[in-house]
């Protein structure tokens, strides 16, 4: 029996004090286009604007999608459109189709590998399907699936989730998440690494990334043990491969049917290919430069060996004058203009440090291709945009991206991804440089410049480029920025993103005043006409 989308929406999300308070914070103001700055993950700044109308959402299985006004929603879309300058409104009708995915909540599968609230999730997925979202992204947590013993896997909750997604007619992007969840801003659940791995770490803490003060980061394993048999007879990359291969066998029916459209392989903290250089629990605050993370015994051994091969054994150390997590570049002897980062030793160390990152990606992706032959594979890079307008690009250097002003640090990574036929997934496409300057002018940030550099590094070697937003985005300004980056205006080669993944499904996204902007955004990504655009 068909269910009214208004009734279904209201039954799922009835008005309540907590939701109203949440939407006020995240959705802006109903009667004007006002902006507030908020300190969120990484201390970054994003703008929230008011919007004044939302359509309705849900269709029953097999029914035609329709729009319905929602309860308490009487403002005309035209007024919203007219309040935006024409210069901000580009008609994307007829532009290339870019699929849109939405990340599912972090805690959708609990630590017993059981699906949490399947009925509620089903309703939310139908809401997304009603506006023609292409699919959803889900983390498959190593710490849940292989939690208790090596090579003993439990996929039960994920199978039930995948079946629901398939029945609704959505696609899946699946992340092989070999990192812990918890400790970063935005993490609302705690999923540590597998228990048996943590037991190994208790007796051998060098399996974790380590900073200069000897503090261990249990978020993920150091790349120094990629080829060390310290995980009960297996190397780290063998553990990752066994996990991926078992997933491929377990969910063969979803691969064959095409429901699983892409596998994203986690290769570092937050699933990103980078060092964990800016860890909040170690005291980092935006816009600190972070610290080098190579002090575990395995990486230090490799650094000393590299120095010996170079013929300068005294170079077998990390920089002593690179500051601390919250330093600014000009406060350090290493990162300041004309500093040691550009000395013979500095170049040697940074080449070695960044090559460790590239080599890790090379090893893991080679095995991912064996496990997922014939499936699209992606790797995720983070957008380290603070201090981008300085000569040294210090925050990028500590993260493993050797990208000072005189060097393209992303070309080598793009070439490695090209070697394996892997797509690049990049963050922060919604951020505007001007907004960063207004909030933190001292950070010398340039997210727009960074996005342009990274996207072109990938496009230059002809690999697919996907992206996602780094921060919550509910307003038209942010969506327009994503659209402009997804489909660059007047690009002579017609280059565009291969997909976009929205971070993340939550009550605020499908709150009345926000969902109309999201629906409008999806249409733009799909190259459809948007009715509230003024005619030229």
From TrEMBL:
InterPro entries: GH, Glyco_hydro_14, Glyco_hydro_14_CS, Glyco_hydro_14B_pln. Its EC number is 3.2.1.2. The keyword Acetylation does not apply. It is an enzyme of class 3 (hydrolase). It holds the Pfam family Glyco_hydro_14. Keywords: Carbohydrate metabolism, Glycosidase, Hydrolase, Polysaccharide degradation. One of its GO terms (biological process) is polysaccharide catabolic process. It comes from the Eukaryota. Substrate binds at residues 139, 179, 187, 380, 385, 427, 469-470, 504. It catalyses: Hydrolysis of (1->4)-alpha-D-glucosidic linkages in polysaccharides so as to remove successive maltose units from the non-reducing ends of the chains. The active site is at residues 272, 468. GO terms for molecular function: beta-amylase activity. SUPFAM superfamilies: (Trans)glycosidases (SSF51445). PANTHER family: BETA-AMYLASE 1, CHLOROPLASTIC, BETA-AMYLASE 2, CHLOROPLASTIC. Belongs to the glycosyl hydrolase 14 family. This is Beta-amylase.
């Amino acid at each position: 029996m068909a269910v009214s989308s208004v009734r279904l929406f209201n039954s799922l999300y009835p008005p309540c004090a907590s939701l109203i308070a949440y939407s006020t914070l995240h959705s802006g103001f109903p009667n004007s286009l006002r902006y507030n700055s908020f300190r969120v993950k990484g201390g970054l700044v994003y703008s929230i604007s008011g919007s004044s109308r939302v359509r309705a959402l849900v269709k029953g299985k097999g029914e035609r999608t329709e729009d319905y006004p929602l309860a308490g929603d009487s403002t005309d879309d035209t007024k919203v459109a007219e309040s935006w300058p024409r210069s901000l409104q580009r008609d994307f009708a007829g532009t290339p189709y870019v699929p849109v995915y939405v990340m599912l909540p972090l805690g959708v599968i609990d630590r017993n590998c059981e699906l949490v609230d399947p009925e509620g999730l089903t309703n939310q997925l139908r809401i997304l399907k009603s506006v023609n979202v292409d699919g959803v992204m889900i983390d498959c947590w190593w710490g849940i699936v292989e939690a208790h013993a090596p090579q003993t896997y439990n996929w039960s909750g994920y199978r039930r989730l995948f079946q629901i997604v398939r029945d609704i007619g959505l696609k899946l992007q699946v992340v092989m998440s070999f990192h812990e969840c918890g400790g970063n801003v935005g993490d609302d659940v705690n999923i540590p690494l597998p228990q048996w791995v943590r037991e190994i770490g208790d007796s051998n803490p060098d399996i974790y990334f380590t900073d200069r003060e000897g503090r261990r980061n249990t978020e993920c394993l150091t790349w120094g043990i990629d080829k060390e048999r310290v995980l009960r007879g297996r190397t780290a990359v063998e553990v990752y491969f066994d996990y991926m291969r078992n997933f491929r066998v377990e969910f063969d029916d979803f691969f064959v049917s095409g429901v699983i459209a892409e596998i994203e392989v986690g290769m570092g903290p937050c699933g990103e290919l980078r060092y964990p250089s800016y860890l909040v629990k170690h005291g980092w605050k935006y816009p600190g430069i972070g610290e080098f993370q190579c002090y575990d015994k395995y990486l230090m051994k490799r650094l000393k060996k590299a120095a010996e091969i170079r013929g300068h054994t005294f170079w077998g150390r990390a920089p002593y004058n690179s500051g601390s997590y919250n330093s600014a570049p000009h406060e350090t002897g290493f990162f300041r203009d004309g500093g040691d980062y550009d000395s013979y030793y500095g170049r040697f160390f940074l080449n070695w440090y960044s090559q460790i990152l590239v080599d890790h990606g090379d090893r893991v992706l080679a095995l991912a291709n064996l496990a997922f032959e014939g499936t699209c594979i992606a790797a995720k890079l983070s957008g380290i945009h603070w201090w981008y307008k300085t000569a040294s690009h210090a925050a990028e250097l500590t993260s493993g991206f050797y990208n000072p002003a005189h060097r393209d640090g992303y070309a080598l990574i793009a070439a490695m991804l090209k070697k394996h036929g892997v797509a690049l997934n990049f963050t922060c496409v919604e951020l505007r440089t001007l907004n960063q300057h207004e909030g933190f002018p001292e950070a010398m940030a340039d997210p727009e410049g960074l996005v342009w550099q990274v996207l072109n590094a990938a496009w230059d070697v002809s690999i697919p480029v996907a992206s996602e937003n780094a921060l919550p985005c509910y307003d038209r300004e942010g969506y327009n920025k994503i659209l402009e980056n997804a489909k660059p205006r007047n690009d002579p080669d017609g280059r565009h993103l291969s997909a976009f993944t929205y971070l993340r499904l939550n009550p605020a996204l499908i709150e009345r005043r926000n969902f109309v902007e999201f629906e409008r955004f999806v249409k733009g990504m799909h190259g459809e006409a948007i009715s509230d655009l003024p005619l030229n």
